[in-house]
Amino acid sequence: MARNTQVQADHNAPPITRVLAEYVSSHPSRGWSDAVDREAHRTFLNWLGCAVGAARHEAAEAALAAVAVLQPAPQATVIGRKEKVDAASAALVNGITSHTFDFDDTHLKTIIHPAGPVASAVLALAELKGATGRQLIDALVLGIDVACRMGNVIYPDHYDRGWHITGTTGMLGAAAGCARLLGLDADRTQMALGIAASQPVGLREQFGTMTKPFHPGAAARAGMMSALLAQHGFTASPRALEAPRGFVQVVSTKAAWHEATDELGERFEISFNSYKPFACGIVIHPSIDACVQLRDQGVTADQVERIELKVHPLVLELTGKKEPADGLQGKFSVYHGCAAGLIFGKASEDEYSDEIVNRPDLVALRRKVIATVDERLDEASADVTALLADGRKVHVFVEHAIGSLQRPMSDEDLERKFRGMADPILGAGRAAELIQACWRLSDVEDLAALATLMRPD
Amino acid sequence: MARNTQVQADHNAPPITRVLAEYVSSHPSRGWSDAVDREAHRTFLNWLGCAVGAARHEAAEAALAAVAVLQPAPQATVIGRKEKVDAASAALVNGITSHTFDFDDTHLKTIIHPAGPVASAVLALAELKGATGRQLIDALVLGIDVACRMGNVIYPDHYDRGWHITGTTGMLGAAAGCARLLGLDADRTQMALGIAASQPVGLREQFGTMTKPFHPGAAARAGMMSALLAQHGFTASPRALEAPRGFVQVVSTKAAWHEATDELGERFEISFNSYKPFACGIVIHPSIDACVQLRDQGVTADQVERIELKVHPLVLELTGKKEPADGLQGKFSVYHGCAAGLIFGKASEDEYSDEIVNRPDLVALRRKVIATVDERLDEASADVTALLADGRKVHVFVEHAIGSLQRPMSDEDLERKFRGMADPILGAGRAAELIQACWRLSDVEDLAALATLMRPD
User: Which of helix, strand or coil describes residue B416?
Assistant: First the structure.
């Protein structure tokens, strides 16, 4: 009776649930380098800007309207809005808004956007519980570590089969972060991870719809609820992650168990987090960067006869939409990304408006982009040749795009990106104040006061 | 670039999301036979009793405590309790409690327990919205149809790989039922199904813990939220169920598309629902029934040297626990089930208390049960031979257990089962009144009044 047609069940997997539970509950506060801690602040700031920027998006309106039906208690801040809602709903909505622009962060080993599920959960819970900034940062680091480590265990098989890995590991990260924030012991933290393991959220089929950003939001809420349930004695399998019918073996044919525990407490996955310079999927960034560099070399749209783009196969698989109809679809079009890079020299949220995506010069230029797969290219790279009307060819090869670990955005880059999104919602003065508060986050004693800054007057 | 190691992607699947959306939004009220409608009442009554019965279980306490942290608005009834909570939380808690005893209903083709996710969602939403009993029943039938049809599409492969199918199709049923109750049009119902498709809940690894009943609860909440989001304009893939990276192809290697749509509006899956006479997984029922029949033939525990039990392979796979430590584990032990059947002649929740599972005579008898797999036996059957101290052998073969479609429980059986659970919580008078109200449910104009009956004084 072996009807499991998917995987060869592994009955000898190590007890990683337990090991992670002990880790999350026992690792000392700030038990990592200054660089790691700094990275946590950068992560938080970057994520917060994304949430602020999308606060008036129609997806935010729709989600808030649904939440309002349930008449929640005012407990936690909806970032960039005057409303306060219950903490679980705040986690949901902030998780949605922070991923709406596809402009947040990326754990490059796994394509996980870890702040969406983890920060959304721990901020809302921290506000409710009156936690300190220190506790918040601790929870963020540990939560992201769990989510990304579990991603390392199952990536890429899990992603390849169609799961949106941000929401299908994010609930584990959110549960870990919230368990930490609640001060749960190892037993209850283990239960929190177990409850969360039953709730992976997200299909790649949803890319291009509001349900894509819903994934980190729902994962945030699920993780928080898992921690609250565990706090009050709710039980789950203690081997929910590693058992033959547990999370990993059900959702993946790859199970690199060692990724969960190698160098635990020594290597922090948040170290491998990166921030997006362009408001779209990370796989397009090298292509856009190359076109920005074409522009820097003096190439203009009206000179271009053809743009020959060579990319890694994943680029066309994920973002091969040739004729995007609106801004959201534009994010899944490497063709539009290239056109925006060449015409504007950037690809922020403004360049993904419905109007810009349909503007005739953009449409004309994107149709001149001939994209082909080159199996020899790395995912991080792109090779672009512009063929001009005068017969010239201009070639750019990007090995690592701006925003990558090799060419990271500076703090100033991050502040600029933040202000671009926050100024229109909060006003420049408050946005600047919030930036400073974020840099000092681990010293903040009163998160409620900080949260006030996240709301418009 | 074919990294999908799980399935051969099918790009030609029929548009079942659309077809189901149109069906749910357009099928006329009560567009089925009297027998189907009657079955809906039976389903509701049976489910409600389960929820009432478990209202003071520690899983209920834990879940309520977690909900209370979020300070929800009082909108909807927590069955068998005085508390009212927000509707989504009521769906969650009632979904948990109604499945806590493993005593609810079973769609025998798929082992889905459909009322848990669907009824929990539609009752809470109906109370909030002031719907009529008629609307509630309509939503229940359609919601169960969607959940079970999707189950038919993917069962057994999906279940075999480790998913708890009740929670991984239940969110679709809950979304469908709630969309119906909200009066969403086909477009928005399609979005509701799409949002729900990203939220399958449940791993079989959780069996034996509180997270098993959490699965239908979380599916109920997810489905309700999906419908509310869709009502307010939230979008999802319109092909979220059938696309290559949509629900079915991501969670199953089997995709019997025709099961979703064959005889739609003609054959209703609620017709294949059954109700449990024993408070444990359906696969043990033939074995327990056989032991009850041994008792009816005069066999007593002190006579027994050995019980030879032959069962379908799934029985030992799911319920092969030889030494259950408590009541919950007892539900996953065919050995305890047989002992209870022979000693008590029944296996209701009382026979699954921690005390009974550890009582010496039960422990002694269950250790005399020798269970072996017989590949020739159907899942519905069991073959038991008792070898007695005096050398006699008593043989019982059960082709279909009590509670099966072939030997269904009568209305009186269901009332008796209901009273067994409801009387201790609500009192016999109110329980009797509630039974009558359930039988008349489709005539009820005011669900709030009905809900009052579900709470203790």
Answer: helix
Report the C-alpha gap between B316 and B284 in whole angstroms.
9
Helix (H) or strand (E) holding B10: none
**Which of these, B50, B116, B41, B44, lies nearest to B418 by C-alpha position?**
B50
Q: Would the CB atoms of B6 and A6 count as touching at under 8 Å?
A: yes
Question: How many CA within 13 A on the CB side of residue A448?
Answer: 6
Q: How far apart are CA B45 and CA B392, in angstroms?
A: 43
Question: Residue B157: its chain A contacts at CB < 8 A?
Answer: 3, 5-6
When CB atoms are compared, the residue of B86, B161, B211 closest to A198 is B211
Residue in chain A nearest B229 by alpha carbon = A66
The structural domains of chain B, ordered by start, are 16-275 (1.10.4100.10), 282-398 (3.30.1330.120)
Side-chain half-sphere CA neighbours of A232 within 13 A:
18
Considering chain B, what is the average pLDDT of its residues?
88
Question: Within 10 A of A157 (CB to CB), how many other CB atoms are there?
Answer: 20
Q: Which of A66, A211, A235 sits opposite B209 (nearest CB)?
A: A235
Distance from the Cα of A130 to chain B's closest Cα (Å) equals: 13
- A222 contacts on B by Cβ (under 8 Å): 218
pTM above 0.90, yes or no: no
What chain B residue is nearest to A374 in terms of C-alpha separation?
Answer: B1
Which residues have CB under 8 Å from B369's CB, separation 6+?
B307, B309, B334, B335, B338, B339
**Two tokens at A317?**
């698989």
pLDDT of residue B52 exceeding 60, the answer is: no
A315 vs B contacts (CB less than 8 Å): none
Instruction: List, in order, residues 6 or more apart from A13 with CB less than 8 Å away.
Output: A242, A243, A244, A248, A249, A255, A257
ipTM: 0.86
Q: Shortest CB distance from A232 goes to which of B65, B214, B250?
A: B65
Report the helix count and the strand count for chain B, using DSSP H and E: 21, 8
Q: Measured between alpha carbons, how far is B373 from B103 in angstroms, rounded to an integer?
A: 25
Low-confidence ranges of chain A (pLDDT < 50): 1-9
- Neighbouring C-beta atoms of residue A165, cutoff 10 Å: 27
How crowded is residue A2: how many other Cβ atoms within 10 Å of its Cβ? 9
Token code pair at residue B333 = 């032990």
- At B398, give phi and psi (nearest 5°): -105, 115
